[in-house]
Amino acid sequence: MQHYPSEYGHYDVCKSLMKSDEGIVWEYMACQPESTDMTKYLKVRLDPPDSTCGETPEKFCAMGNPYMCNNECDASTPELAHPTDLMFDFEGRNPSTFWQSITWKDYPRPLQVNITLSWNKTIELTDNIAITFESGRPEKMILEKSLNYGRTWEPYQFYAADCLDAFRMEPKSVKDLTHLTVLEIICTEEYSTGYAAHAKTLSFEIKDRFAIFAGPRLHNMASLYSQLDTTKNLRDFFTVTDLRIRLLRPATGATFVDEQNLARYFYAISDIKIHGRCKCNLHANTCVFDNNKLSCECEHNTTGPDCGRCKKNYTGRPWSPGSYLTIPKGTANICIPSISSIGTPPKFDRIRPSVSSLEVSNRKQANVCDNELQRCQNGGICHRNMRCECPAAYTGILCEKLKCEKESGGCGSRNGQGAVSHSWGLTPTVLLGAIVLARV
């Protein structure tokens, strides 16, 4: 059997041509689109919708100096406007551009703003979420996620200057989590301290949670992939259709709110970084953005926005996501032709491949032979991809064995035939095909 080095298990690659002792062969991996900047594809919604400053021009003050109130927000003047698209600083302009909320002029009524980021597509997060605030990080905030396009929400992480006071939760850091608590929703005080000009970024640490399984420098990714393969809750944890930033209390920089200078309190976001990939259930290595919509270019006879079902006439077995691990440990779980499209095949329990010849799991799901990689040997004929019809003298999944091998005298005692070496059997190319196709 071909050896598969662990570094080939990287889940960004679907398949590639590899050199081996047997020549050029396909190396089959899990199919996933590349990780990219997902802020290019999202839509932003504010609640309340009139939370952006400038509809009515207003002055605002610097957080560090409440008497410095020479700044103005005016939506009708481009140089003074702070719309939501400036949350994503694609232009790299200097000075930095930013979205800004209205000021806290209605104090003591809470100044609260929900920022919803939607993709209309399921995505998987691959790096830390980073939110950069221009006027102090909020003293109270919740990052939420939805897995059903905003119909329901659940918390991702709580942020507060005082977790006990704000959310009745003990403060924690992601570094406090373990294998057993990796999915715990925590409250952190790390990013919500009083105003400091150099401390602007708030993070949701994806990589630190990866590191719980893959090690501090993410060197042991195979361990993480193994966990993702077997733990649906872990896969779902990094999966979203929408994110919601709930800004509940702005930075004040002090114990008490200065009611005489309310124009110094507001939210301002200069950049949001979200890296991820389209979720394609490991059945596509490309995701396209067309007509303002993301969609997977599905392979493996799958279809749907997330490649979440088998194509028509390919429902020969229930749909299943692919594996993060490469063969022989993983499987692409390709959808196979349905009975109606290929006629009535023999019963599946009669065509299970032997463990010794294929050495793969999911053995009930094998596509036994074809006319390309899994050819029937020694004159055998492939019948509906379900079994090899072998000549009288041969047996085995691919007609690779002489029947006399099974008999007590062996082949050496029959008609002068020499003994057949037990190292003979499936050629490397055929064996590779058997592994690939039988696994799926």
From TrEMBL:
Protein name: Netrin G1
Lineage, uppermost ranks: Eukaryota, Metazoa, Chordata, Craniata, Vertebrata
Keywords, ordered alphabetically: Disulfide bond, EGF-like domain, Laminin EGF-like domain
Disulphide-bonded residues: C390-C399
Transmembrane segments: none
Superkingdom of source: Eukaryota
The keyword Disulfide bond appears for this protein: yes
SMART domains: EGF_Lam, LamNT
Pfam families per UniProt: EGF_laminin, Laminin_N
